[in-house]
Fold each of these.
Amino acid sequence: MATPHPPRGFDPAAARPFLEQFDRLKAELPGATLSWVRDLRDQGRARFAELGLPTVKNESWRYTNLRALDKLAFQPAVKAETGASFDVLPTVRAEGTTGPRLVFVDGRFRAELSSTAGLPEGVELLNLADALAHQPDLIGEHLSRLAAPDDLPLVALNTAFLADGPVLRIPKGVEVAEPIELVFVSVGSDEHPTAFHPRSLIVAEANARAVIVEHHIGLGTGPTLANHVGEVFVGEGASVHHYKVQREGLNAFHLSHTAAKVAAKGVYDNFILTVGGKLSRNEVRSELAGEQADTHVSGAYMVRRDQHVDTTTFIDHAVPSCTSREVYKGVIDDTARAVFQGKILVRPGAQKTDGYQQNRALLLSDTAEIDAKPELEIYADDVKCSHGATAGELDDEALFYLRARGIDKETARGLLIGAFLAEALEEIPEDSVREAFQGIIAGWQNAR
Amino acid sequence: MPATTETVDQVRAVTEQKYKYGFTTDIEADVAPKGLNEDIVRFISAKKEEPEWLLEWRLKAFRAWQEMEEPTWWPKLSYPPIDYQDAHYYAAPKMKARPKSLDEVDPELLKTYEKLGIPLREQEILAGVEGSEGKSPSIAVDAVFDSVSVATTFKAKLEEMGIIFCAISEAVHKCPELVQKYLGSVVPYTDNFYATLNSAVFTDGSFVYIPKGVRCPMELSTYFRINQANTGQFERTLIIADEGSYVSYLEGCTAPKRDENQLHAAVVELVAHDDAAIKYSTVQNWYPGNEEGVGGIYNFVTKRGACRGRNSKISWTQVETGSAITWKYPSCILQGDNSVGEFYSVAITNNHQQADTGTKMIHIGKNTRSTIVSKGISAGKAQQTYRGLVKILSKAEGARNHTQCDSLLIGDQCGAHTVPYIESRNRTARIEHEATTAKISEDQLFYCRQRGLSEEDAVSLIVNGFCKEVLKELPMEFAVEAQKLVGISLEGSVG
């Protein structure tokens, strides 16, 4: 073509307020004295300035509209606003027990609520601001290697503002038995909408093992925007079990991008349970980069009122003999809307790939909506790939079966919804996590 | 199993000739000057002696087209830009006075029909020999050569029943009120870049009207052929099935082998009223280009059917083996309550072919049902994509959809992609989508080889089995040809 078209489906004008804030703030951000950190932030800024926010004309964002962000005039969360105190923080642990935990409030680390006690020797668990100030070498090699700003404006935005978040490094052969909990609390402000951009980095060296549980909760009443970016390196033979539950308030915008790279015989297991948020999007990318690597990317969601939940996954089979499995189940009530976009890519030469994806949605009201786009892109012939997608209401016959046994309609519906979601939870091998998530689902149903 | 011997036979036949429709016919043609502007649009309209309203409609489309942006952002198709000024938009074979017998017919034209495998009796009719009409009817054929419909057979027989089957340019004069009422009512002239271009410059195509309560007694068939070099073919087909009627329509396409790419941008509109049913079958075998990907047809087609009435039904069946690039999504708008949409597709791509095809099922009415069965086979260096949309609007209570997309890969240089979009706004709607991708299993091949089949015969047999669900939907006459095509298209893809 004579004239190259500008990138399709972006709104550069939407970048302006964020850029102005960044330019005001950048000198005070942690690690601002390090040239490579400055360069990284500037690259993020430059790319975000070029692209701006994605619009619905962007293929990857066709079902999720971020126009609401534009109207809200978010202010960056200023650091270490103490004040908010917590009686109880969410946990998957048995009552009365403690374990490793990092707590972030509006994106900033809260040392007094965190603990690294009980971790095996050599395991590094700290916050990014601290790492930038005291051990930049610990992160320099990995930061921004997986989630590059290129065509991902929100990653670019996060990279510009990157300041704090969890950093975890597990050395070769070390297995962390205790789940490591990461708690993100959105508080915001009553005066203005608040934005923050937490950045996580997880590195599991060869044959290391860890279970990570992320809790995202909201306490304030003002609108918040949490724009998370996480990078997960899974070494040879290592396994990372990464679970997340998002229960923010109905004023919260929750955007999250997780990029994992799995080396030979490594396992990356991701599960996301979404209950909260006005608008949430979880984008999970898992690259199978070494032979016999395995990834599970699954989740469940329950949404109601005018909630909007978007799950976008990308499984990249880059080399032969890898396996991937995805199971997503969701329940949509009232005028809520759910989006599922799942892509499996099998690159040329990635023979003996086994890829499976399932995505099922249950619509509970006449005004609920599901939009699904399961996608296969395959460039190798000796592969086994399949996907299935269904959408519908509760099975009339199953309902009749229960009613015929004297169970009232509401209880019967509750049982069937619970059973529908429980199937997704089967994907979680960790008992403590599965049971905790089960409890959250039950709580949602009771509140219904 | 007869299909087996059939397949074996034709694979043998194929070793001698690869693209057997790749001949050109040297006939004097009446050609419009190259290029595209308002004058060309007026020229086409004048040639066809069209009424003022149609010229106005064409000009509106042309002006809209000039404002439109050519789609260049398709994720999985790539081709050099098309120069829309470097083509003829009108080419008609010069017709002399009506010949008295076959001897008087231009021998070149007759040879063409012979090579196309059209029986002699039908050749007579196609060539317009006097007194040839009315012989034992099996299929009524409308042959479109480059831009012009050259002959329509069995017209009289159909007219008795009130069925109108003729070239659309003829229909414009014969039943202008029908054409004016329905033309552009399913695919508006602003629909998309290629449909809009078609609306401005369409030259011919078929028109079918089946009156109330009539079941069309024979298959109606159109045969499209691009013959002239540097021509684009822009045909426009319009089929209307009035209340309680039924019609089965077949469409076949071929083109000569040429090194340059030719553009084919057709528009097909179907309208089914209450209790009416339309079955539309296509065997698309445009020249796909050679092994190196040189030449071949760009097939950018808009096909859409509207189930306007209650209990109406539209069924698309397609076998796509040709074209360098195919871009085609035969769709159904299920507006009437209880209406039914079906899409059965086999797409085969080999060498450097690219195909992006699928369907759209838009459920608007209550209890509307749709079925999608898509079988894609990709070999050589070909790239194939199934792209489909199932959309359930909020009023479509009790809507149902079942989609099955299977892809088969032959060789490690090709690609097979599945991009379904599923949008539901109704709780009571039930949607199921399944897709699989696999290769021909070693076990299946071994089993066939062990019984003495060559590797190619075995592949052809297995692939025919893979496609059977779709091929069985084709009318008899096409099913045989389609089975042969499956084998021909995969020629040279194994070993």
Amino acid sequence: MEYSLETSIGRIQLDRPVMLASGILGISLDVFKRLYLSGAGAVVTKSLSTEPWEGYPNPTIFSVKGGGWINAVGLSNPGAPDFARMIEPNKDVPIIVSMVGSIPEDFEIMIKQFEYCKVTAYELNLSCPHVAKVGLEVGDDPELVKKIVSTVRNSTNVPVIAKVGLGTSNYLNTVGAAIDSGIDAITAINTVRAMAIDAETQRPILSNRYGGLSGTPIKPIALRCVYEISSKYDVPIIGCGGISSWEDAIEFFLAGASAIQIGSAIGDNWISVFHEINKGILQYMKRKNYSHIKEMVGLAKRS
Amino acid sequence: MQRDHNHPTIVTIEKVIDETPTVRTLVFSDKIMSEALPGQFAMVWIPGVNELPMSIMISDEPERAAFTVRKHGLASTALFNVKAGEQIGIRGPYGNSFDLKEGKLLLVGGGTGLVPMMRLLTFVRPRDDITVLIGAKTKNEIFFENLTRSLLEEHHHHSIVVSTDDGSYGEKGFVTDVAERLMSKIHFDGVYTCGPEIMMYKVVQSANSRHVFVEASLERMMKCGVGLCGSCCVGTDLACRDGTIFDGVHLSKNKEFGYFHRNKAGILEHY
């Protein structure tokens, strides 16, 4: 029997199911190539805005004792025009362009910048928990989500993914709104709003005070969300949140994800983590006799 | 419990040494940082202000380490102004370390780039033949000359050359020209450099043109220090995780070294 790591997330076809999550390392085409050669099936860029953003002052990241990170980098990015110029020469690497904005027009403007680039998909960041007026503040408003997704849908034929997270409203309504407006897939979940206080100096550590918790502490929450979304809706899902091993990846497939994204695990295991997870998935498939990822997707939901 | 090196540890500054009007050394007790390898750095949190990467300086007292900082921007000026008795947070050590060769070694440091050179001097063997080049713009910006002398006391073969761009002290001219001249006369077994990137670029060129082993410690804007944020990328490399030390052969293939760095938004800017 032939065993393949290929996977489809709706119209998105990838050779390998493990992607780089948005916000991590996504600044240069050289690094994207390196990650692709190291086993990433696709790379998701830092969330781009219409203009360059410097992000917050340091400290922007905090390591939680016992595992996990809290970050408030503040969506620093070179802006869509500069970024589009940088990736224009790319032919080989499947690049998913992540975007943030407050109004539908922001996304429309950015998509135009990528007219001459090879873009595998767009991922709409509707869930960053630490920057005002974008991210979760948008995702918490299903009516605004509908307008943004409809506008993006009418601006491009490239597949569009909505990345959702846990805000103040029920995230399942955000997912529903995105599906109603023609979204191709859902990435779940983003980091979870959190903070760190230093007992000795008696002050918050991150300059922005609040950040987003990622890594192993949020994995069970992310897994629950993927399971909930796949139970309620018929939509391709990309699992994201605390995945650091092939077992984690398999669990997300079983919960209903067709692909997964990796972020924090790179901080612990560096770039070899992509290869390690791919290898583990393939060995599991051989042992359990699955020739394709899709045979595993959602299996945990059987009664 | 073993310390999580990514989690900030709060230390108290015990002593502040004025090196020049704009450079200070802040000494603190910390066994782990005192045992850092030459070239490693820490992320240093000035509570309520900022956090920045700093090469880990040696101290002449046991189980102590230090940071030598030049006041420049907001964060470095805040660190410069920290007084004895005040607290800072440290995490690390991060990054790789110099690959120390044996025999005739040349160390070229400019400004606070001398910090990893001082730690490197505590690792060389007494029988190695050490030449240290200290470069500065002008006389009152020179520091660590006496420290270098005392670290090399037990070496039979060593020399220290100080150069200033304006000739107000030591040899007149750029330290890179002194390095080039020495390399044209003497075969070195290893060349190590840290300082302004243009300086390091020229030293690396001088060594590479003679196929001499050379390493440079790169400085980039850093946010996380652990290979997550991507701010410090130099071509395909992440300075924090793959470096900060790279050898001359590797650097000769890097199109950004010596020419570009990235700003806070991640946009490439010319030096």
